[in-house]
Amino acid sequence: MRVRREMLAAADALRRESLLGFDTETRPSFRKGQSYPTSLLQLAGRHEVYVFQLGILGLPAELRGLLSDPRMVKAGVAIQRDLRELRALADFEPRRFVDLGACAMRGGLHHHGLRGLAALLLGKRISKGARTTNWARPDIPAKALRYAATDAWVSRLIHEALEREGLIREIPEASAAARRSRRARLWRHARSAAARIYRAARGPRHE
């Protein structure tokens, strides 16, 4: 998906969901030290998967709004790096994210990756064939797009399977009030330290 009008319609549809499968794709690098920005964002609802070409769309406010929406869960595997790289495109506050691999690990499952969990929990085998695709190209082949969409779709199914087993735990996030309280404590500490330094610099008072 690379047309703004289509992106807006997709974002509107996704806002009605309570659970989204989440994944991203980045153009592979074959040289040491070489890296590229995130190329695709995949979000899976109950009936459809939407693949957004970020190299064309960027990360617009409508998509950032979905990623920050506290009303819906976003589930994926090894998502911390994905989120960090998405925030390099345009900053946002990630809300209601679930790392399925971490949930599986805490639950004592032997598989923590997407393909292992799909085989274990869903009895599905996911192809690895499109991993070397140049996801930054504007005309991504249909087969590769299906591969990208499948990862987000399967993430949603794995979340449902883990939830049935009572193994889901969302990534902890500080509330806005907690963040304000922490900033206030740091500010008071800084002022107190500055006052002590000032008094020490002045030396003892003489009457």
Give the topology, please:
Layout: H1 4-14, E1 19-26, E2 38-44, E3 49-53, H2 54-57, H3 61-68, E4 73-76, H4 79-89, E5 97-99, H5 100-106, H6 114-122, H7 142-164, H8 176-202
Parallel strand pairs: 1-4, 4-5
Antiparallel strand pairs: 1-2, 2-3
Helix pairs in contact: 6-7
CATH architecture of the largest domain: 2-Layer Sandwich
Low-confidence stretches: none
Largest sheet, order of strands side by side?
3-2-1-4-5
Q: Quickly name the level 1 CATH class of the largest domain.
A: Alpha Beta
Tell me the strand percentage band. Answer: 5-15%
Counted up, domains total 2
What string, H for helix and E for strand, traces the elements in order?
HEEEHHEHEHHHH
What is CATH's topology name of the largest domain?
Nucleotidyltransferase, domain 5
> Terminal Cα separation, in Å?
77 Å
Helix content bin: 40-55%
Please give a handful of descriptors for the protein shown.
8 helices, single chain, 207 residues, Nucleotidyltransferase, domain 5, 5-stranded mixed sheet, alpha/beta
Structure, explained:
It is a single chain. With 207 residues, this protein is of the alpha/beta class. The chain has two domains: 170 residues, Ribonuclease H-like superfamily/Ribonuclease H (Nucleotidyltransferase, domain 5, 2-Layer Sandwich); 33 residues. It is 48% helix and 13% strand. It contains eight helices and five strands; from the N terminus they run αβββααβαβαααα. The protein has a five-stranded mixed beta sheet with strand order 3-2-1-4-5. Strand 4, helix 4 and strand 5 form a beta-alpha-beta unit. Helix 6 crosses helix 7. The protein is globular and about 75 Å long.
